[in-house]
Amino acid sequence: MRNTAAFNEGGEGDVAGLVREVQGRVGALADLLHGLSEEVVEGTDATGAVVARVSGAGRLLGLTVDPRAMRDLDHVAMSAAIQGAIGAARSEVGERLGKAMEDFAQSPPHGDPLAPYVRALLREE
Q: Cβ of 4: how many Cβ atoms within 10 Å?
């Protein structure tokens, strides 16, 4: 990130080059997020009776319910099992996204003066 470093040091640098560098970084982030959205993640309820599959974007793709659960659980327990499985899958998606963003922020291109700001932004709640 030669051009970003020049701007960070107070120099004028090459504006077109800076824009290309920033676009490259934004493109890398877009590719990362797209790759995550294409993943399929599974989550299981606490009893193991229900398995939910969600996309990397958190969209529900499907449920698998153990036949014994259909027989043994009433509608309230079944609802809780389904919610638990979906929640577990979405929680895993969140963890993967958090890890990917942490890795992205920790591995900026050499000389990226925006890296501390990106790290600070990701730490804010």
A: 21
DSSP one-letter code for 109: P
SS3 106: helix
Among candidates 40, 67, 64, 65, which has minimal Cα distance to 54?
40
Query: CA gyration radius for the chain?
Result: 21
Prediction pTM value? 0.70
Cα 93 to Cα 53, 58, 81, 88: the distances in Å are 11, 7, 19, 9
What's the one-letter identity of residue 113?
A: P
What pLDDT, in 10s, does the model give residues 17-62? 777 777 888 888 899 889 999 999 999 999 999 999 999 998 999 9
Q: How far apart are CA 119 and CA 79, in angstroms?
A: 39
What is the Cα–Cα distance from 70 to 90, expressed in whole angstroms? 23
